[in-house]
Fold Penicillin-binding protein 1B McrB.
Amino acid sequence: MPGMKRAPLLTLLLALGTPAGALVRLGDPLPTHPWKSADRELIVVYSHDCGDLGELWGAVLAAGLPVRAVNAEDIPAPAPKGVNVWRGPEATAFARALRVGTYPAVLLVREGRVLNAWEGTFAGDLGLAGKD
């Protein structure tokens, strides 16, 4: 529909697609973590070998929810300016307790429980071209 704006969170969820390949179990509570949980939040779990995550970070930050970054696997990797990153053995243990199978992983969390999960590459293509 011409002139219709998409909500940033909806756009992100459309971009991420379905959780078909995710090993993270929907509905599971988050393992122990160092931040105060928000009502709804996005958690990005990534490692040093994910490549360029610029488009993914852009989509995640545009969603308008608190963003938590978990840099797993003991080799520091950057996150966007202003995003606090949790690193170290506890961050890796968190990712493994969630059963993250592929980095990067994006989790939509509501009240401390995984509402949706996506794992794998992100090309930024929403698949919406020509579907007005």
In short: The chain has three helices and five strands. The radius of gyration is 15 Å.
